[in-house]
Automatic annotation (TrEMBL):
Name by which UniProt lists this protein: Small ribosomal subunit protein mS41
Chief site of localization: mitochondrion
Record organism: Thelephora terrestris
Similarity section: Belongs to the mitochondrion-specific ribosomal protein mS41 family.
Residue span, Small ribosomal subunit protein mS41 SAM domain: 39-93
InterPro entries membership: Ribosomal_mS41, SAM_Ribosomal_mS41
Annotated compartments: Mitochondrion
Entry keywords, A to Z: Mitochondrion
Keyword Transmembrane attached: no
Length: 128
């Protein structure tokens, strides 16, 4: 029995090694650069009023956050995904002025859609 356990444990590190290095690299804390010197400056630069939605005082605290921490602070799914995406882009060396964008606006047309689609008038169904 002991030999089967050692065989199994010899396989496990080789399978999980890539996962450990990937998560360690993804969670690294980048140094502040350019006009961004604090967590609040970063959140202001990515927009969508993230500085009011997320309360973080220190730079190191911001980069330790994950999705569950953001959920505990009461952020919506779209806000969580956008902030984590922006943090990863900043880790990879991109400037927030290059990748920050506004949220998509709500659709103005509700219901079944417009009466003209693709240049053709759509006729309504006959009421019974």
């Amino acid at each position: 029995m002991l030999s089967s356990v050692t065989k199994f444990t010899s396989l496990v590190p080789s399978l999980t090694r890539c996962l450990q290095t990937a998560t360690a690299a993804a969670s690294s804390m980048p140094a502040p650069r350019g006009s961004i010197c604090s967590a609040e400056d970063f959140l202001k630069s990515i927009g969508r009023s993230a500085e009011t939605k997320l309360k973080v005082e220190k730079w190191a605290e911001l980069w330790k956050l994950d999705s569950s921490d953001l959920k505990r602070q009461g952020l919506d799914v779209k806000d969580r995904r956008y902030i984590l995406w922006a943090m990863q882009k900043y880790r990879l060396g991109s400037d927030p002025t290059e990748f920050a964008h506004a949220a998509t606006p709500k659709k103005k047309i509700r219901g079944w859609g417009p009466s003209v689609q693709n240049g053709k008038r759509i006729r309504s169904r006959r009421h019974r």
